[in-house]
């Protein structure tokens, strides 16, 4: 396997989409949908990269892995359980969500993002 991998683009991924909701994501408001394109995965399956798209609505989420995100399009507000802390991110923003985060992921405008996930 090569040490360098290329992706499609966020508008034209090279992989087929997975349309099921992610494990640990439960819809709580609206009728959100998502698509996930896994563009690269290490042989041990512990590091995944790809593209993700979601329509407006809210999920209660439980993160079991660290995720680095860069938003190409859209707007999302994250609200952490317990503290109630809210942060809003829009197209052009980058963020990290740590494993163990639980809270509300509210897609306010359709999201398109690239992600990198490290599973512990």
Structure description:
The protein is mainly beta. It has one domain (25-118): Jelly Rolls (Sandwich), CATH 2.60.120. Helices cover 0% and strands 57% of the residues. It contains no helices and 8 strands. It has strands at residues 25-29, 34-41, 47-54, 57-62, 66-80, 86-90, 94-97, 102-118. Strands 1, 2, 3, 4, 5, 6, 7 and 8 form an 8-stranded antiparallel β-sheet that branches. A hairpin with a 5-residue loop joins strand 2 (34-41) and strand 3 (47-54). The protein is globular, with a radius of gyration of 14 Å. The relative contact order is 0.26. The mean pLDDT is 95.
Topology summary:
Blueprint: E1 25-29, E2 34-41, E3 47-54, E4 57-62, E5 66-80, E6 86-90, E7 94-97, E8 102-118
Antiparallel strand pairs: 1-4, 2-3, 3-8, 4-8, 5-6, 5-7, 5-8
Percent helix among the residues?
Answer: under 10%
Mean pLDDT: 95
* Low-pLDDT ranges: none
CATH topology: Jelly Rolls
Order of helices and strands: EEEEEEEE
Structural class: mainly beta
Say which CATH homologous superfamily is assigned: Jelly Rolls
Tally of domains: 1
Distance between the termini: 22 Å
Query: What is the CA-atom radius of gyration, in angstroms?
Result: 14 Å
Number of helices: 0
How many strand units? 8
**Share in β-strands:** over 45%
CATH class (first level) name: Mainly Beta
- Return the CATH architecture: Sandwich
Basic shape = globular
What does the largest sheet look like? Answer: 8 strands, antiparallel
């Amino acid at each position: 396997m090569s040490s360098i991998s290329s992706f499609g683009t966020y508008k034209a991924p090279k992989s087929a989409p997975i349309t099921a909701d992610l494990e640990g994501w439960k819809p709580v408001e609206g009728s959100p949908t998502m698509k996930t394109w896994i563009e690269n995965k290490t042989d041990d399956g512990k590091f995944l990269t790809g593209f993700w798209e979601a329509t407006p609505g809210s999920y209660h989420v439980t993160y079991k892995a660290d995720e680095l995100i860069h938003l190409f399009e859209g707007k999302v507000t994250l609200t952490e359980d317990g503290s109630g802390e809210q942060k809003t991110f829009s197209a052009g923003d980058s963020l990290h969500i740590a494993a163990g985060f639980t809270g509300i992921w509210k897609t306010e405008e359709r999201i398109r993002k690239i992600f990198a996930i490290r599973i512990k």
